[in-house]
Amino acid sequence: MTLVALAAMEEGADAIAKKIVEMAKQGDMSAARLVLERLVPPAKERPIFLSLPDTGSADGVAQAQAAILQAVAAGDILPGEAATLVGIVEARRKALETQEFEARLTALEAAK
User: Fold this and answer.
1) DSSP state of 27
2) Which terminus in the chain has less CB density within 10 A, N or C?
3) Residue 77's closest CA among 40, 41, 47, 42?
């Protein structure tokens, strides 16, 4: 695009934006929603405050999974948030499994 065309579009966009804000101030709810959506876009994620037990053992991982399930059932967190937390707890479980496997392998090699 040429600079002239870009300038014309920018000038038009500014006028449109001002008109929408004016309409929102006059009570047009559609215009107000549009303005708010641009000023405060919907949050993709939110902070979650959920106490979980220590996940340093298989029992702790199971307790953490149960706590997440209870939080969803109580409405404290959303199912999508729970899925993210469960994924984190599952990664921790896999890390524990890998550590345990390595310890067993080391013990078997030392016993030879």
Assistant:
1) T
2) C
3) 47
The structure tokens listed for 105 are 């392998």
pLDDT band at 14 (very low <50, low <70, confident <90, very high): confident
Examine residue 88 and state whether it is found in any structural domain, yes or no: yes
The whole-number pLDDT of residue 86 equals 96
- Domain of residue 10 covers 3-39
Residue 82 to residue 66: CA distance in whole angstroms? 11
Query: Are residues 65 and 32 part of one domain?
Result: no
The answer to whether 16 and 8 are in contact (CB under 8 A) is no
Residue 53 lies in a domain: no
Percentage of residues of the chain with pLDDT beyond 90? 54
